[in-house]
């Protein structure tokens, strides 16, 4: 059952390690170039497996780990690329490493529909099924009839292992989103469609709600690991034909506890609730605190495990100063600069020293991306627009002010009209109604033309007066 894997690894390692696989997810998004896509994946392995070791140093140093290859499964042949990854998270207690990577690939131009995936062996020992794995993506690269653009596949994420107490009824929410805003539904992977290899039909006790992507799990069967294989699909509203189909496969571990269903560790404020959505500024920083406490007296928290986007930085587990018995971690993340909406999933759970694990919580981190707001010409009245991250700035012409240069400045407030003249504010400017005898834009000039007749007539009037005087004198004589 390790044949395929040995073949893949032949150049890297000759070891075939059984029961090392801990699940994976695959998705993709198109580029501007036809048939060229970016394939995104997250893969989880036993942390103790050769080449899959991850700790804080591995994460911060950006050590590349490798894990087999991605194959074309329909309409093309052979290897698409090597599934190298950077580990993002690990669990010492649960013995797993998980990490992300991406492959940019151009499919041959003679088809617009492709299936590709990841196959190999072997899974961790399971209660039911096991050995080989197969994850299969269905990608339609033809432009959509409704938008005229190539579809982007839905996104999905969850912890590699969800731990559930035996004898209890559990609900597992699988966070899914779709960058195109399509309807997203989940379904079990199907053996006939070659979507699940050794773990088809292996999810005994699990019921999937296809519209909400939640699994209810009756943990009353055997204890141990169960593998869940789910296809996430996006649909245009009302349609039953998926635009694309992407796989997520993860583990549920059902464990023994005599302490009862409600004895698992609790999260305390300010820990965010399950299914929360946080909106971050483009090129911004996300910071958060996760606080957990055991419900068993005098028991400490042993580990807070996370599943995070690439680049997250997490503190070590620390005693929470504000509450006795509580422990916490801090996470910070400088988001990558993106130019369209990006949704990231962040999941976490806490395990105490008695081996009990809290309910998993997952949340969305939404980055609206930096859009060039100037493209919608927000600056009015001839203002010049400058795009800045997350916003824009308008350079307004004289007479206008405000975010969009729409506010008229009332110039009359500054009393620009001189010499007792009246100021009338207009849109973008002002007018001065000059007092008699004054002129100019601001009524600061004497109206010479009014005095002109007077000046011109002065010699005439003077001569007239002289004439009159002379005449009077003549009369007297
Ligand atoms: C981790 O898992 C591997 C594979 O299932 C197993 O061989 C190994 O013993 C485990 N290591 C620990 C420390 O649990
Ligand atoms: C991570 O593991 C390496 C190799 O075992 C070790 O040298 C390093 O100190 C570890 N880093 C941390 C932060 O534990
Ligand atoms: C892939 O290879 C098989 C066998 O080698 C061949 O029958 C098939 O036509 C090939 N398919 C494509 C799309 O090249
Ligand atoms: C598609 O194109 C590739 C090379 O671009 C070629 O090898 C393959 O045979 C073609 N397949 C079909 C079905 O035409
Ligand atoms: C699996 O797929 C086949 C082929 O499309 C279909 O006939 C069958 O009903 C599917 N099985 C399930 C359980 O949905
Ligand atoms: C799946 O499991 C059910 C019940 O366990 C069984 O009836 C069915 O035949 C199984 N299907 C396959 C394809 O193994
Ligand atoms: C799935 O969940 C929704 C919302 O809780 C509910 O309305 C619907 O009936 C559920 N579907 C099934 C098949 O249980
Ligand atoms: C499960 O619990 C029972 C009783 O509490 C105990 O006898 C048994 O050893 C436990 N099994 C495991 C695998 O821990
Ligand atoms: C994004 O933020 C980082 C750190 O805050 C900063 O150094 C960088 O210049 C910013 N990028 C842009 C394009 O503003
Ligand atoms: C403890 O509480 C204080 C006041 O409420 C708060 O400012 C501080 O951030 C808290 N410490 C941690 C580690 O959350
Ligand atoms: C500026 O214009 C933008 C886009 O046209 C609009 O959303 C915003 O509300 C305007 N702001 C003000 C203060 O008018
Ligand atoms: C806008 O930019 C043009 C060209 O740089 C310049 O001529 C004009 O004066 C600017 N307008 C304003 C209101 O700044």
UniProtKB/TrEMBL annotation:
Disulphide connectivity of cysteines: 396-405, 434-443
Keywords on record: Disulfide bond, EGF-like domain, Glycoprotein, Membrane, Repeat, Signal, Transmembrane, Transmembrane helix
Record's signal peptide: 1-18
Source taxon at top rank: Eukaryota
UniProt xrefs under SMART domains: EGF (SM00181), EGF_CA (SM00179)
InterPro entries registered for this protein in UniProt: EGF, EGF-like_Ca-bd_dom, EGF-type_Asp/Asn_hydroxyl_site, EGF_Ca-bd_CS, NOTCH1_EGF-like
Spans through the membrane: 450-471
Keyword Signal: yes
Classification via CDD domains: EGF_CA
Residue ranges of domain EGF-like in the record: 370-406, 408-444
PANTHER family: CYTOCHROME C OXIDASE POLYPEPTIDE VIC-2, UNINFLATABLE, ISOFORM C
Name of the molecule in the record: EGF-like domain-containing protein
């Amino acid at each position: 059952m390790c044949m395929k894997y040995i073949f893949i690894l032949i150049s890297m390692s000759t070891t075939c390690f059984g029961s090392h696989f801990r699940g994976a997810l695959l998705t993709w998004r198109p580029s501007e170039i036809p048939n060229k896509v970016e394939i995104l994946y997250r893969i989880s392995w036993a942390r103790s497996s050769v080449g899959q070791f991850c700790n804080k140093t591995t994460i911060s140093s950006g050590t590349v780990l490798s894990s087999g290859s991605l194959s074309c499964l329909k309409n093309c042949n052979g290897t698409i690329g090597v599934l190298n990854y950077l580990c993002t998270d690990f669990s010492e207690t649960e013995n797993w490493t998980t990490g992300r990577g991406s492959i940019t690939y151009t499919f041959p131009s003679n088809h617009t529909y492709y299936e590709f995936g990841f196959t190999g062996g072997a899974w961790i020992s399971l209660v039911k099924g096991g050995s080989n794995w197969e994850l299969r993506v269905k990608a339609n690269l033809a432009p959509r009839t409704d938008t005229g653009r190539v579809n982007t596949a839905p996104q999905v994420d969850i912890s590699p292992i969800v731990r559930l107490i035996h004898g209890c009824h559990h609900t597992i929410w699988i966070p899914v989103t779709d960058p195109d805003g399509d309807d997203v539904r989940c379904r079990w992977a199907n053996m006939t469609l070659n979507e699940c290899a050794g773990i088809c039909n292996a999810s005994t006790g699990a019921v999937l709600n296809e519209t909400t992507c939640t699994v209810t799990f009756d943990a009353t069967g055997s204890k141990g690991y169960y593998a869940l294989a789910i296809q996430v699909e996006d649909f245009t509203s009302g349609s039953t034909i998926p635009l694309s189909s992407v796989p997520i496969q993860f583990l549920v571990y059902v464990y023994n506890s005599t302490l009862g269903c409600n004895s698992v560790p609790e999260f305390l404020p300010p820990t965010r609730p399950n299914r929360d959505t946080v909106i971050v500024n483009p090129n911004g920083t996300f910071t958060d605190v996760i606080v957990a406490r055991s419900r068993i007296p005098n028991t400490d928290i042993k580990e807070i495990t996370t599943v995070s986007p690439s680049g997250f930085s997490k503190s070590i587990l620390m005693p929470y100063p504000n509450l006795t018995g509580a422990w916490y971690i801090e996470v910070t993340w400088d988001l990558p600069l993106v130019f369209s909406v990006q949704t990231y999933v962040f999941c976490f759970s806490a395990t105490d020293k008695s081996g009990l694990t809290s309910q998993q919580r997952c949340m969305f981190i939404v980055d609206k991306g930096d859009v060039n707001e100037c493209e919608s010409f927000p600056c009015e009245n001839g203002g010049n627009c400058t795009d800045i991250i997350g916003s824009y700035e308008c350079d307004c012409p004289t007479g206008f002010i405000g975010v969009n240069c729409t506010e008229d400045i009332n110039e009359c407030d500054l009393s620009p009209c001189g010499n007792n003249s009246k100021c009338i504010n207009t849109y973008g400017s002002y007018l001065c109604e000059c007092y008699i005898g004054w002129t100019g834009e601001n009524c600061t000039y004497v109206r010479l033309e009014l005095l002109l007749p007077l000046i011109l007539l002065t010699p005439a009037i003077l001569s007239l007066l002289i004439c009159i005087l002379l005449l009077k004198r003549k009369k007297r004589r």
